[in-house]
Amino acid sequence: MAQRPYIVGNWKMHGTRAMLAEARAIDRAAERLIKVEVALAPPATLIHATRKEATLIGVGAQDCHPADGGAHTGDISAAMLKDAGAGFTIVGHSERRADHGESDADVKAKAEAVLASGMNVIVCVGETEEQRDAGKAESVVAKQLKASLPTGEGVAEKVTVAYEPVWAIGTGRTPTVDDIGAMHRSIRKVVQGIYGDEDGAGVRILYGGSVKPDNAAELLAADEVGGALVGGASLTAESFLGIIVAAAEAGED
Ligand code: 13P
Questions:
Q1: CATH number of residue 130's parent domain
Q2: 95, 166, 206, 210: which to mutate for ligand 1, most atoms within 8 A of CB?
Q3: CB of 208 closer than 6 A to ligand 1?
Q4: Residue 60 lies inside a defined structural domain of this protein
């Protein structure tokens, strides 16, 4: 792994203030694991408190509204998330694409709002099982990337891509290391097509979908994998730290 591995925990719709103890424990341990860049994306209600509890790791959000503000009841703007303490925002997660009908254009608009607020952005892409079975995984992901990634001068360094095959999320199933490598090489080509060879080479590509302490080393060793976006296994310090330790070991290669 050329860069420091980037391990991001996505808490999804889990967590009340009782879970801040996990964030604190993760933060304390991260101090000893400087070879890994660690971040947590708690629910929006916990961003401010997590930022106060955890001083070393990154803290981010899971979604935002694309507008600066206005009559959008229940929504949260990128500037509000940043004000609460977020340093990055995840956009385009497949659960948002599915549950809220978000299109690639919506995801791009959100990514642009995140960058305009001064935060970094993690843009999620991934195929369904049906699309993979039909041999369309790489073309589906390439299309998502071309239509979802924000473009412009100096943008590439603020963008991370997360490849999360929909069928691997929360299922305990993962693609093979070869399949992950093939997909990540394909993503790298598309990203370089968008940002140019040099800037595109620096964009981190995370793998997400059933990453656990016992498979993290294997998955992180796949070609072009710059880290992981972790759901269920990021909910306790114990399991999340198992993944972070595996990443620290992978980063030493
Ligand atoms: P799981 O790690 O629970 O499969 O979730 C992955 C994910 O969706 C992270 O964003």
A1: 3.20.20.70
A2: 210
A3: yes
A4: yes
